[in-house]
């Protein structure tokens, strides 16, 4: 029987989930080795130095600091430009979401293979929903750490990244960094999606925050045990209501936009919806996901054989994919190829010809 292990944080966004817990009597014998390694790491508190990752920033533009009442976080040590690479990190652990064995047995095996320094880095991470026992089993603690810090790391996998895990959460227009997994390189990259001044905290998002404040806060409190006080959640009531309306409209429009795939709307309507989403994002300060939105309209334009629209939206997709995923990403290369050879696009001419209009 398969057990599903889901990433706690957004899907290349984060999807929160719970690992199934196993009673201690079901631990496999290999747990003894894991427990010994864990005890060594905890006892000596070995400092962790990550292995060099090719093309990683030579000098990270941030430092890990203690934030009163909020644990640790990443603060910019210099001015950062939108699109700058902040982190390039290999996973400390990479775990399949579908397994046929006990989750704790798998975790035990993975931890047993780590050197003491890496174990120390792992156990230095925060965790919510810790076991209530005053003397919890280290593997139960490890399970809670994975639940709190793991993010999507490729198809069917989640990963734990000690540096990226120090990024705290902010909602909607308040976060300034996004991450993505690069399957071909086996690393996670984090890019700035807006300019950040020296001394400002780097923030990502743990969920799809296109929902009203009440719902966002309830989710975060239940899953991560904190009441969000980010800039968006701290707006005055009247401004918060306006923000909620924009975000909920964006979510509804994304659903309408997706209906083009099934033929419910035509290409012109899909492009109109995309332009409205873009305008709402501008008003909200929600600049994430623009690369994908523009890239999707490129597909619509190709299907309707609209070269002019394809190139206009392609320029936007290249720009915003470059900010969010990196200018060397596969998505940027794909858009460039589509713009250079529109008729070579996989969707070209699959729908009736139609002028859908250019970008916002």
UniProtKB/TrEMBL annotation:
Residues 60-207 form the SET domain. It comes from Gloeophyllum trabeum (strain ATCC 11539 / FP-39264 / Madison 617) (Brown rot fungus). It comes from the Eukaryota. PANTHER family: SET DOMAIN-CONTAINING PROTEIN 5. PROSITE patterns: SET. SUPFAM superfamilies: SET domain (SSF82199). It holds the Pfam family SET. This is SET domain-containing protein.
